[in-house]
Amino acid sequence: MTKKIHQTDMAPAALGPYSQAVSVGNLLFISGQLPIDPTTGKMVEGDIATRTHQVLANMRAIAEAAGANLDQVVKTTIFLTDLGDFQAMNSAYATHFPAAPPARSTVQVAALPLGSNIEIEAILSL
User: What's the family (predicted)?
Assistant: First the structure.
C-alpha cells in the first residue's frame, strides 16, 4: 500500500517533523490537533468548549483536504490536561458528531504542546 501525505493551509502547520495527515489504504490518520487558529497561527482564547470547536474545525479542514469529512471518523483520542473539563468538552464535541459518533478514548495528560489544554487525533475510514 502507498502512503500519501495530506496538507492544507486551512489548518495549522505541523509543529515538528510530522504530517497533518497520512492515508494508507482506506484509512486516514489525522495527527493531534491543537486549538490553533490557522489564520493567525495562535492558540484561540476561551474556554474548553471554544477550544474544542477550533480543534474540530482544524480536523474538518484536514479531512476535507484529503477528500473526506467528519462523518467518516471511526476513532478519536482526546487528550485533556484537566478531566474537570470533560463535560464541557464533551458537549462541544457532540455537536460535531450528531449521529453515529466515532469510538473514542479520553485521557488526562500532564502537559500538551504550546501549553494547550486539549489535543485531539483521529482515524477516518475513506
Answer: Belongs to the RutC family.
Residue 123's pLDDT is what? 98
Grid cell digits, residue 8: 492544507
Q: What is the pLDDT of residue 1?
A: 81
Q: Nearest-CA neighbor of 31 among 14, 49, 54?
A: 14
Q: Which domains does the chain carry?
A: 3-125 (3.30.1330.40)
Mean pLDDT of 35-56: 97
Determine the Cα–Cα distance for residues 74 and 100; give it in Å rounded to an integer.
9
